[in-house]
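User: Quick sanity check before I run a bigger batch. Here is a single chain. Can you write out its predicted 3D structure?
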Amino acid sequence: MAERVKVLIIGSGPAGYTAAIYASRAELEPVMLAGFQFGGQLMITTDVENYPGFPEGVTGPEMMDLFQKQAERFGTRILFEDATSVDLSSRPFRVVSDEHEFLADSLILATGASARWLGIDSEQRLVNKGVSACATCDGALYRDKPMAVVGGGDTAMEEALFLTRFGTKVTVIHRRDELRASKIMQERARKNEKIEFLWDSVVEEVLGDGFVSGVRTRNVKTGEIRDLAVEALFIAIGHQPNTDLVKGQIELDDVGYIRVVPGTSRTDVEGVFACGDAMDPTYRQAITAAGSGCMASIDAERWLAEQGIE
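Assistant: Done. Predicted structure follows.
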C-alpha cells in the first residue's frame, strides 16, 4: 500500500535539508528520500569557509550532519533510499523508492547537480587535495600558488578570473585552439596578466603524491607531453543537473535544469517545487541552495493551504 504524505522531499543537500527544517516546523510531517549518496556535493568537500555561522570553517560532511540532525529534531522522517520513479501525471504524485511507495500531496525536488570530471584515476585520487570543481568554494585555500583551470567556456573563464585573486599564475588548459566563452569573457581573460593559455591540450594525469604538484598534458595535434607545475587544478567543464527522474514530466532548460517561475520555486506542474542546484545553473553555492530550500518549503506550505491541506 502506498503511504500518503503531505510533503515529500527528494534529495538531501543544503536545499533538501533546509526545506525539511521549514516543512517540519510548519508541522507538515515531511518525508525525505535522502538517497544512498546523501548530503550532495558537500560530502566531497573538505573545508567550507564561506558559509555564515562557521567562523573557523567546517567540513562538508560535518555541515551536512548538522543539517540532518536539525531536520530530524523537528520531525522530518529521513529515508536513505533513492527515488526510482516519479509520476507527476496526477495528484497526489506517486513516488517509488527502493523499499517504499508514496502518494505525495506536494513534492519538493532537491536532487542537485553533479560536476563533470575528466574521468582519470589521478583526478579522483586528488579531489580535495588540490583538485576541485569549484573555484568560489576552494580558490582561497591555494593562495600564492600556481593554479590551472581546465575548460574553454564562460564558466572556465569566470573561474580563471576569480582565481587570479589568489594564485600567482593561472593556466587555462583547453583542448581546442579557440575558446567557446562569450567574447566579453574571452577579452577579460586575455587581458589579465596572470592568465596564460595552453592550447590544443588535454590533461593526461594529475601529478602529486599527497597533494597536487603538477599536471601532465598532451597536445592533441602534435602528441607532445608537457608537465606543468601547479598546486591546484580546477575542473570547469560544466555541471549536469540530476533531473533524469522527472525528464519529460516537467519543464527543463536545454541543459536539464528545472525551470521555475522567476522569484519562486514553483515549476510548471502544480504542487511541484524545485530548489538547489537542480534548478540553479548560476550560483551553485551551499548558501544559495539552502535559501532556495527555504523558498520551496514556504511555497509548498502556502500552496497546500490553498488546497485545504494543512
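The radius of gyration is 21 Å.

User: Great, the batch can go ahead then.
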